[in-house]
Amino acid sequence: MSFYAALIASGLRPREVVADGRWHRCPTEDKPRKKNGCYLLEPGGARGVWKNYALDADWNKWESNELTTAQRVDADRRARELRKREAKRRIAAIQAMRAYFDTLPVLRGGHPYLEAKGLSMLGCGRLRLDGDLLVIPAYRAGWLVSVQTISPEGEKRYRTGCPMRGAFFALERRGAAVTCLAEGLATGLAIFQSVPLARVLVCFDLGNMVAVAGSLKTSGLVV
What we know:
By secondary structure, this protein is an alpha+beta fold. The protein has five helices and eleven strands. The strands form three sheets. A four-stranded antiparallel sheet has the order 1-2-3-4, covered by helices on one side. A four-stranded antiparallel sheet has the order 5-6-7-8, with helices on one face. Strand 5 (128-130) and strand 6 form a beta hairpin.
């Protein structure tokens, strides 16, 4: 499989692939109007990495079958350095995001986005506000790893540098008989507010629902 084919298979949608050893942002299938994808292809096109910032916690790797042993050793060294730098940036981004989230007031009295969707405040007790932005926390393995903001007009953004793959916002209730997965907050709240026995996990993105479902399967929760 070529590097370009690997990007396409992973949901990235670059207009072209440039082998110049530099980072290039590009749209993704799930976010065609934003540049949530990023790739780097080394000069000569022998090795590359890519990532969907909304879904991938780590970098995906690709290499040509024509690499020499020396090229593989050198490429592995650079890949290790890249992972270390990325891990440091991710940790710093998560720490900054948590500090930011702690300063935000809890949502009280509704929000224009929720009102436009015909939703009540049921299930919204852990949402927060940043000015007129609705802020939804995203948790993975019980840890806050990112946030999504929604404007009154419905524009959605993720926290830069924070991982979203496998993260969700849980709408909990005691005695829930079933766990439902929803792509976005509005859909999740609609289910939660209309199905009295449902526990709902907001996955933020259609592609992320598979990762969340996988985590539920390993934890033994009913879906």
